[in-house]
Design a protein that fits this description.
Layout: H1 3-23, E1 29-32, E2 42-44, E3 47-51, E4 56-61, E5 67-72, E6 82-84, E7 87-91, E8 96-101, E9 107-112, E10 122-124, E11 127-131, E12 136-141, E13 147-152, E14 162-164, E15 167-171, E16 176-181, E17 187-192, E18 202-204, E19 207-211, E20 216-221, E21 227-232, E22 242-244, E23 247-251, E24 256-261, E25 267-272, E26 282-283, E27 287-291, E28 296-301, E29 307-312, E30 324-326, E31 329-333, E32 338-343
Antiparallel strand pairs: 1-32, 2-3, 3-4, 4-5, 6-7, 7-8, 8-9, 10-11, 11-12, 12-13, 14-15, 15-16, 16-17, 18-19, 19-20, 20-21, 22-23, 23-24, 24-25, 26-27, 27-28, 28-29, 30-31, 31-32
Length: about 375
């Protein structure tokens, strides 16, 4: 074999190994909950917090997945926890919103709504904002759990509030997107989409981004609710958008993940997965992470949508838990109750540490 032939052979083998490694990424650690994990994580310090269908909120060590504590609610925990000021807040299908000590898991207070809670709480200026299937959006005192105000929509509120500039933005299954005064709960404006809004709004640069169950994706003026532009996705949009560096990213029921110009709504790229992309993307600058209902976690290049790697979390063990990213690791859960810690793309030390990026759930970096 000539030297040139050997070099070509080595190049081909190296390329094949790179592809195999990209498609068969191995987890750093795996934690097994007692039931499915559809809640998205929050990371604070050395701990990661996540809810499960078994009714528990788990606190795990980010380094190795070891359980620090668990807290049992009376229902399933679809709501994603948020950590702020040494406390962790989350809702449950037992109708209650809980506040726990983030270090010990001891309950500080609970507040009971009129129906189940899927909505994930947002924290801003000492208040907790959350929606419920009782059609209401609530504002509570973050320290005491005392109700400050509630606002009634015409249907269940699965959407998670985003708080920005003294206003609360939230969708409802009545098909409207609402802007409320954060201090009083008074309605500033509403925008009718015509279909259920389960997607949670992202707020960035004076605009609100949100999708609906028909597949329409909207950019609205945050001050007035006026539509700036509309984009039609291939299917329903449960995925909540992420905004970063002038781009907006979201998934759809057809399996497409879109990157749009945040100002014009022009499509920059589209990546088509093999199954529904219902999770909310995590964007760390150069990379986009998301999961699909056939159990695949993807890492794409943010610039062009090219796939960097994928991880199979279990054949058709679907993923509704959205990824979070911190300090070179990405965390995600699946319907079989597994929590995975994976290495990010090479050189990616970016941060997307909780659902909707920050405690106020703006969905923007």
């Amino acid at each position: 074999m000539s030297a040139q032939t050997k070099l070509v052979t080595l190049f081909i083998l190296s390329s094949i190994m790179s592809i195999v490694c990209a498609c068969n990424r191995r987890p750093v650690w795996v934690f097994q909950a007692d039931s499915g994990v559809f809640s998205t994580f929050s990371i604070s310090g050395d701990n990661i917090y996540v809810g499960s269908d078994d009714g528990k909120l788990y606190c795990l060590k980010t380094a190795n997945g070891e359980k620090v504590w668990e807290f049992q609610t009376g229902g399933e925990v679809f709501s994603s926890p948020v950590v702020s000021g040494g406390f962790v807040y989350m809702g449950s299908t037992d109708r209650k919103l809980y506040c726990l000590n983030a270090l010990t898991g001891e309950k500080e207070w609970e507040f009971e709504t009129g129906d189940i809670i899927y909505s994930s709480p947002a924290i801003s200026d000492g208040k907790v904002y959350v929606g419920s299937f009782d059609h209401l959006v609530y504002s509570l005192d973050a320290i005491t759990g005392t109700k400050v105000w509630d606002f009634e929509t015409a249907d269940a509120v699965e959407s998670s509030p985003a708080v920005s500039g003294g206003f609360v933005y939230v969708g409802s299954n009545d098909g409207n997107v609402y802007c409320l005064n954060a201090a009083t709960g008074e309605k500033v404006w509403e925008f009718p989409t015509g279909f259920m809004v389960e997607s949670s709004p992202a707020v960035s640069g004076g605009f609100v981004y949100v999708g609906n169950d028909e597949g329409s994706f909207y950019c609205l003026n945050a001050a007035t609710g006026t539509k700036a532009w509309e984009f039609f996705a291939s299917d329903y949009v449960y995925s909540s958008p992420a905004v970063s560096d002038g781009k907006v990213y979201f998934g759809s029921g057809q399996g497409s993940v879109y990157c749009l110009n945040a100002v014009s709504g022009t499509k920059v790229w589209e990546f088509v997965a093999d199954s529904e992309a219902d999770t909310s993307p995590a964007v760390t600058g150069d990379y986009v992470y998301f999961g699909t209902e056939d159990g695949i976690v993807y890492c794409l290049k943010a610039a062009n949508g090219d796939k960097v790697w994928q991880f199979n979390a279990g054949a058709y063990e679907y993923i509704l838990s959205s990824p979070v990213v911190s300090s070179g690791y990405v965390y995600i859960g699946n319907e079989n109750g597994k929590v995975f810690c994976l290495k990010t793309a090479a050189g990616d030390n970016g941060q997307w540490p909780m659902f909707r990026y920050n405690p106020s759930r703006t969905g923007a970096r």
